[in-house]
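Figure S7 source data.
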Amino acid sequence: MTLILALETSCDDTCAAVITTGGELRSNVISSQGIHDAYGGVVPEIASRHHLELANAAVDDALRRAAATLDDVGLVAVTQGPGLVGALLVGVATAKAIAAARGLALAPVDHLQGHVAANFLRIGGAAPIMEPPFVCLLASGGHTLLARVERHDGFEVLGRTLDDAAGEAFDKGARLLGLPFPGGPALERLARDGDPQAFAFPIARNLEGLDFSFAGVKTSLLYRVRDLGADVARERAADLAASFQTAIVEALALRCAQALERTGLDRLAIGGGVAANGPLRARLGELGVTLGIPPRELCTDNAAMIASAARYVEPLAFPDYLALDAYASGERALA
Ligand code: KG4
Ligand code: ZN
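Tokens for the predicted zinc ion complex:
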């Protein structure tokens, strides 16, 4: 009874993972639902249906890869929110069923806390990627915020995006450049052949505090593509992608530097899908502080991070979680 089994189904990835109660990663299964590419974005109802089809197989696979069975599991964890509520409900119902069948406790986990907690994982017997205190940049498709992490079980928000999330900006920018969804990885690939200085895109600098804004850079790309015309924009797509990516990376790096200065902390961790971005990872390396950079598969949505966060959540004993509900929005909404 030394393992934690976790499920994460907040968006379009059906994820299950196993870690030890000491935070050592044992398996991390991520089944991406390629189906949404055809629609240019995640279709919530389709995501829920696919979670339903994939959840049990993902759990089986996670246990198999961990060389474990349910007999070895002492705690079941699941993302409770925020996310697509129908998608979340599939994970919550599956986790409840597994836990109830075994009389196990269940830990409801906040998705954002999960992204932070990816940094507490140990891989291959190594020390945790990062331990508090640190500043954490969370940049995903739905959220972009800077957190001050002093404890394992919560964080203080120092600043957040006032409009689009960084991942959303990548996705919308990619769409303008005719790239497939999800846009971040595709735009990063295209940008490798481009000149990051070819076009100047705006970086929102004069905001209050440590907030972000990505609506301007997205609109600026829209106008630039229009001004160039379809043919030239297609020819210059790599330059546009590289320049656009640079503006987002610089905006994120600028705020990270300011957050480190304001908090007096010299340790920076990152999480969320955008943290998988190579140029962002390289740019943050230039800040001259201790960096906590999880492997890419622990930055994008995964269940290992949910298992990791569950180590610091008060678990609900059977049968207290049977009426547990998912929540679609908000942060740290655990009641
Ligand atoms: O954390 P995540 O997997 O799901 C959410 O909770 O949103 O983040 C997904 C977001 C998408 O917007 C995707 O385009 C972006 O992360 N992303 C990237 C990269 N990989 C994923 N953005 C930039 N560069 C990448 N390599
Ligand atoms: Zn996420």
